[in-house]
Design a protein that fits this description.
single chain, about 280 residues, alpha/beta, Purple Acid Phosphatase, chain A, domain 2, seven-stranded mixed β-sheet, six-stranded mixed β-sheet, 6 helices, 13 strands, about 30% strand
């Protein structure tokens, strides 16, 4: 009998209301499926969406206390200097590992054990560079070094690709095909319909979407975003707090085979739940 595991990943959580509905979605998923690992991108979970929220971390941990969970980030991971200490308090809180500025807190990878299945997983968070106005190290080199260090001792490798360009994410995924178990994109907040298993067995989707207001611009109030785009003036872009809300992500199943060292992806399915219609 083949061993199998299930992993759920939820896309960028936008604002406090997004956190509420992401938590609700996770509760439902945990009651419907036998899940072994959860990954949530929380870099926009602050009330004003700029940076992660420690309250969100605590709430997620209290809801899924019996299932391992890893939090990933992106270009807003360092928006709140007052929260830098969280990277020491929560080793499962990641930020893109290819930030190369001096003395930055946190790290871009996390090793964990899934005890009930007797396996180890490596979760990696990197940011890609196309259209990103930040000084970043090479994500290819960063992941190559991690795989050289860990790939002989892990059963599952999961990568959160935080980036703008679909072509860059797609190319990166094919470069990693067979060396990672799952590669999923974040950052654009718009779920793509290209979920698939690549030729060498890696599950992939370009972007898993967001948890935020459905009638919004990537979770932000439409009036503010439209004014900003029309005038180019500096405007506070705050999360939309009226419903309905959508919570998006994926569920991926893996099986252990004798032929491969890594667990093999056997299915990837998009998740979308709308609240408040």
């Amino acid at each position: 009998m083949k061993k199998s595991i299930s992993v759920v990943c939820l896309g960028d959580i936008v604002g406090a209301k997004g956190t509420i509905y992401a938590l609700e979605h996770l509760k439902e998923l945990c009651s419907s499926y036998e899940l072994d690992l959860l990954i949530v991108n929380i870099e926009n979970s602050q009330k004003n969406s700029n940076g992660f929220s420690e309250d969100a971390i605590k709430n997620f941990l209290s809801v899924v206390h019996d299932i391992p969970i890893v939090f990933t980030g992106g270009n807003h991971s360092f928006d709140k200097k007052s929260l830098f200490e969280c990277y020491d308090r929560y080793p499962n809180l990641l930020r893109p590992g290819n930030f190369e500025w001096n003395n930055l807190p946190g790290r871009g990878h996390y090793m964990l054990k899934i005890a009930n299945k007797n396996l180890s997983a490596l979760v990696i968070n990197v940011m890609l560079r196309a259209f990103i106005r930040m000084q970043l190290g090479c994500p290819f080199l960063y992941i190559e070094k991690l795989l050289e260090q860990y790939e002989k001792e892990v059963d599952i490798v999961i990568v959160d690709l935080h980036g703008e360009a679909t072509g860059e994410k797609n190319s990166f995924a094919y470069w990693l095909d067979g060396r990672a178990s799952l590669i999923f994109g974040t950052h654009t907040h718009v779920q793509t319909a290209d979920e698939r298993i690549l030729p060498l067995g890696t599950a992939y989707i370009t972007d898993i979407g967001m948890t935020g207001a459905l009638h919004s611009s990537i979770g932000i109030r439409l009036k503010s975003m439209i004014e900003y785009l029309r005038t180019q003036l500096r405007i506070d872009l705050l999360p939309e707090e009226t419903g309905p809300f959508i919570s998006s992500g994926i569920i991926v199943n893996f099986e252990k085979t004798e032929e491969k060292r890594l667990w093999n992806a056997v299915s990837i399915k998009r998740l979308n739940k709308i609240y408040g219609l």
